[in-house]
UniProtKB/TrEMBL annotation:
It comes from Ciconia maguari. It comes from the Eukaryota. This is Synaptotagmin-like protein 2. Its main location: membrane. Residues 51-173, 188-320 form the C2 domain. SUPFAM superfamilies: C2 domain (Calcium/lipid-binding domain, CaLB) (SSF49562).
């Protein structure tokens, strides 16, 4: 795949209406199933109990193996979830923030029927020290429910940039209730500045040499602000674009890579032709931002522009899930033919 910043035009295959539901996926659609679980730091039933008790743990960095180690020792005086039976089945879960999807979660075993569980387990992350120092450790305690309704028991967040790395001893820390401000801020993934335009078939008049025989959707990706900083030097980002439900190579386009910049300017325009007006209610423009690395690219966030109805050509699809802002942006384009519609849309984890 070659990076290009030139304007590209190709056919949107509107006849591709009835593929299997399983094929309705692109990079964002496939990532969403992962992110849906990885980003569940605060998933579960929060209202059942109040956070209480303490957790004992120690942090260390193994320079030789380039490994961050969280030694989870034990917890004391946790809240009781099942009051009738007087029991909790607790386990400890950790994430590195802000990008939970990149490093993933680690968790201990479940200790049944105790509010004073003893773990003595080490949770490990392979990560460079310089990268670790721009992260935060989120350590939370949960009650494990067989039906998946796990209950939040408390958490602690550690800023690793200010951590005393000479302190390798086990220490006790009070568990805190979930912070709504932290929840709202933790998944901020940046904002995309873009414009879109729909040119209906034959709408420019017969005298216009560029009058399209079929409709066109123009997408102008201008820039992105405040991307997640995965490395001290920034990120090497690029944007991928699909028009769903078409996930073929013809539908796929991407911008060039902008290196070492959390506020990249792309100024990249893509034109999809073959669009009829009725296709606009069933199609979805998916724009995703990625961090480029040699071995693998890491998902940073994305947007989906469409009507968000959950349906595409009568088929139920999970990617037709546009937010209110994204739907309003798409509707404005539909109602203002041949006009550029400008917008600032927040990237999301999906």
């Amino acid at each position: 795949e070659s990076d290009t910043a030139s304007e590209i035009s190709f056919q949107f295959n509107k006849h591709k209406k009835t593929p299997s539901v399983g094929s309705h996926s692109s990079d964002m659609a496939s990532v969403s199933s992962v992110s849906g679980s990885v980003l569940s730091v605060y998933s579960g039933d929060f209202g059942s109990v109040d956070a209480q008790g303490t957790v004992e743990f120690a942090l260390d960095y193994d320079e030789k193996n380039r490994e961050f180690q969280v030694h989870v020792s034990q917890c004391k005086d946790l809240a009781v979830v099942d009051e009738k039976k007087g029991r909790s089945d607790p386990y400890v879960k950790t994430y590195l923030l802000p990008d939970k999807a990149r490093m993933g979660k680690r968790k201990t075993s479940v200790k049944k029927r105790t509010v004073n569980p003893i773990y003595n387990e080490v949770l490990r992350y392979k990560i460079e020290k310089m990268v670790l120092l721009i992260q935060k450790l989120n350590l939370s305690v949960w009650h494990n429910d067989p039906l998946g309704r796990n209950s939040f028991l408390g958490e602690i967040e550690v800023d690793l940039a200010s951590w005393d790395w000479s302190n390798r001893k086990l220490n006790w820390y009070p568990l805190k209730p979930r912070s709504l401000s932290a929840v709202n801020g933790v998944d901020h993934r940046g904002v995309m500045n873009l414009s879109i335009k729909y040119v209906p078939p034959g709408s420019l008049g017969k005298m216009c040499p560029k009058n399209p025989p079929s409709g066109e959707v123009h997408i102008w990706v201008k820039d992105v602000k405040d991307l997640l900083q995965l490395r001290p030097s920034g990120v090497d980002s690029f944007v991928k674009c699909y028009v769903l439900p078409d996930t073929s190579k013809k539908s796929y386009q991407k911008t060039r890579v902008i290196k070492r910049d959390t506020n990249p300017v792309f100024n990249h325009t893509i034109v999809y032709d073959g669009f009829h007006t009725e296709d606009l209610k069933d199609a979805c423009v998916e724009l995703t931002v990625w961090d480029h690395e040699k071995l693998t690219n890491h998902f940073l966030g994305g947007i989906r522009l469409g009507l968000g109805t959950g349906l595409s050509y009568g088929i139920s699809v999970d990617w037709m899930d546009s937010t209110q802002e994204e739907v309003a942006f798409w509707q404005e384009m539909m109602s203002a033919a041949n006009e550029w519609i400008e917008g600032l849309l927040p990237l999301r984890s999906l």
